[in-house]
């Protein structure tokens, strides 16, 4: 009984992770945009001094200080979240590669497109009970390959 309850809980977490797959991908883009926005551009100037070939110089100590401060907290937090989301997406992609075509189709329709079990039965040509059995098989396989990812999220 306790094992069944733990398995149900693990499956629910896994299903939630899969349902958010597209959100993780969008999150990566949005977080990167935020990071790009808060990072001020470094303005360089080309200064030729007599007797030299020229060097690039950063214009402002204040600008360098501001960049360091931003990097210290907010930018690092954004980068960490981007890295976690990229890892989650990469792990899901790798786990899906291990599934056969029917299993992959099930995941894409059920979790990425939000289809119901009844819709899946009609689309895939299975009885609803067979779709439910396929779900359990898929979740069992994915729970092994994505077990570490569940701890990240």
UniProtKB/TrEMBL annotation:
Positions of the RNA polymerase sigma factor 70 region 4 type domain: 91-134
Classification via Gene3D superfamilies: Winged helix-like DNA-binding domain superfamily/Winged helix DNA-binding domain (1.10.10.10)
Domain of life of the native organism: Bacteria
SUPFAM superfamilies: Sigma3 and sigma4 domains of RNA polymerase sigma factors
Protein name stated in the entry: RinA family phage transcriptional activator
Organism from which the protein derives: Siminovitchia thermophila
């Amino acid at each position: 009984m306790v094992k069944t309850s733990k398995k149900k809980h693990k499956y629910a977490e896994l299903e939630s992770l899969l349902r958010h797959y597209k959100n993780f991908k969008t999150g990566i883009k949005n977080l990167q945009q935020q990071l790009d926005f808060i990072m001020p551009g470094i303005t360089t100037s080309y200064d030729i001094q007599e007797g030299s070939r020229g060097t690039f110089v950063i214009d402002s100590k204040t600008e360098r200080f501001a960049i360091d401060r931003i990097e210290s907290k907010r930018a690092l937090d954004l980068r960490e979240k981007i890295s976690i989301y990229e890892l989650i997406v990469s792990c899901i992609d790798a786990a899906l590669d291990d599934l056969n075509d029917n299993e992959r189709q099930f995941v894409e329709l059920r979790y990425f497109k939000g289809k119901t079990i009844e819709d899946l039965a009609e689309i895939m040509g299975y009885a609803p009970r067979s779709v439910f059995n396929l779900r359990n098989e898929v979740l069992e396989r994915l729970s092994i390959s994505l077990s570490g990812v569940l701890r990240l999220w």
